[in-house]
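Technical note accompanying the year-one report. For the benefit of new consortium partners, we illustrate the data format agreed upon in the data management plan: each record pairs a sequence with a structure-token string. No post-processing was applied to the example shown here.
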Amino acid sequence: CAVLDVQAACQDVAVTQELLKEGFHRDLLLKVELGVVGKDAGGCTVAARTRLPSGIYVDPYELASLQQQNLTKAVLIPDVIDVEAPEYLATDLLVLLYMEPDPRCSGCFSAALPVHGRYHRPAEDSEEALVVLKSPEVLLCCCDNGLSAECWKPAEVEAPCSGKTSGACQWYSTRHKPVYQESILQVPVGLRQHSSLVCVVTLLVTVLCSSLILAAACKYGHF
């Protein structure tokens, strides 16, 4: 019974995530409620570690700008990202997102991060590709390491305890309730049967625009 009680207390940690806005450019909103196990987290830094699949990415230049304005704090692994790569040439991205206390809820933390969908290959019979975001991992970094061993375990995270300090420190992870529903990003894709039409229209538009530019250059240019 004692083991079951400990497991129930550890599972009291709850995570929710949702994608805001529409289209390719979205905001990933994460919320963590520590519940009972939060009693050991006084003075600790709370973060969420989430893996973004290849169909979605974070713009490092946009993130740097937001961090300069103290609007968000995050670590990207790897920190070099090809923002132009399509989904089938990209790799997964690991994000450590530092969370801020929610003043409306004791033991609650939240953070938001702008994310962007990548272009996908044309599909056979669907005009949308689905990018699934799994539940993130809840992490804590504490100065005194006084966390309950039943709920928290050391995690292999090479990142500072806050966005303002340098040097890696010891992070701890906890078991928690998975998100109620996986977040799914719907990315518009083209249909393969339209490829010939797209190529013809693109060629015609290119020829027309080139002709207009050439005509204007001949009429108004100085050679």
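Partners are asked to follow this layout when depositing records. The radius of gyration is 23 Å.
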